[in-house]
TrEMBL record:
This is DegV family protein. InterPro entries: DegV, DegV_C, DegV_domain_contain. PROSITE patterns: DEGV (PS51482). Keywords: Lipid-binding. One of its GO terms (molecular function) is lipid binding. It comes from the Bacteria.
Length: 286
């Protein structure tokens, strides 16, 4: 029986319950640590990845899904005539979306598969996936669903605090500017991704900067508390969830108890480049 199906990649911040409830197909990226390669979310969990990263001799690497895997997945999802909405992490972060687009051409299913650049990753990508899934459940059409996703993209926000610049410099995502900053004493940086472009929004020193970062976000949420339904807090840390982030989530709930807050480990692609101790707050307004 034909229907509308959702396809995404493993960098999206989705719980196992959400994936199961909405029958979301997730194509895993690959991660390589000290010569060993794993399928993200299949052969290694996010927590296991961060632990291995903390012990690794070299900066881990991440790879987009093979085009063959994309082709097979698309063929499987469309074999009954179903249409597919594929939502993937920002092109600036990975070639995954290009692999998906190439796979669509190779399968000749361009009339059935609709590819979306989320322009972000993690829970922001997850928000778009979940919105599409709920729209499908509500019986909305493809054009209506795609329009809804575009509306979300216009108001989505990512604030990422990096407290250790070693990985981001080695990864080369921010170019020579990050290399100059890293030599400054105890510098932290805030990254944002407006319109899918990674940029350094602010920089400062130590704990004072981190506290100001938290306050700015809480002030933003306070100003938009009736327009925000969901917030994601994603982090890079070994062991249990940092108490600081659980406390931060409670502060958001104190602003508006109706806001759903998900606190969870981020994906390997973000962890690799953000480094230990990093955390991000993601949301959009309605």
């Amino acid at each position: 029986m034909s229907e509308i199906k959702i396809l995404t990649d493993s960098s999206a911040q989705l719980t196992p319950e959400e994936i199961k409830k909405y029958h979301i197909t997730v194509v895993p990226l690959s991660v390589t640590i000290d010569g060993d390669t794993y399928l993200d979310g299949v052969e290694i969990t996010r927590q296991q990845f961060v632990q291995k990263m903390s012990e690794s001799k070299k900066l881990p690497t991440t790879s987009q899904p093979p085009i063959g895997t994309m082709v097979d997945t698309i063929n499987e999802l469309t074999k009954d005539g179903s249409e597919v909405i594929g939502i993937f992490l920002a092109k600036v972060l990975s070639g995954t979306i290009d692999a998906a687009r190439q796979a669509v051409k190779l399968t000749g299913k361009s009339d059935l598969v609709h590819i979306v650049d989320s322009e972000l990753t993690d829970r922001s990508e997850g928000f778009q996936v979940l919105a599409a899934a709920r729209d499908i459940a509500a019986g909305k059409s493809i054009p209506e669903i795609l329009a809804h996703i575009e509306k979300i993209k216009k108001t989505q926000r990512l604030h990422l605090l990096i407290v250790n610049l070693e990985n981001v410099v080695k990864g080369g995502r921010l170019g020579p500017l990050a290399g100059k900053i890293v030599n400054m004493l105890n510098i932290h940086i805030e990254l944002q991704m407006p319109n899918g472009h990674l940029k350094i929004a602010k920089k400062g020193r130590g704990k004072k900067f981190s506290l100001a970062f938290d306050k700015r976000i809480l002030d933003e949420i306070e100003a938009n508390k009736e327009k925000i339904k969901e917030v994601g807090i994603s982090y890079v840390a070994t062991g249990s969830t940092p108490q600081k982030l659980l406390d931060f989530a409670q502060k958001i709930k104190d602003i508006n108890s109706k806001i759903d807050v998900l606190v969870r480990e981020t994906s390997p692609i973000i962890a690799t480049h953000a480094g230990m101790g990093a955390y991000a707050v993601l949301y959009y307004t309605e």
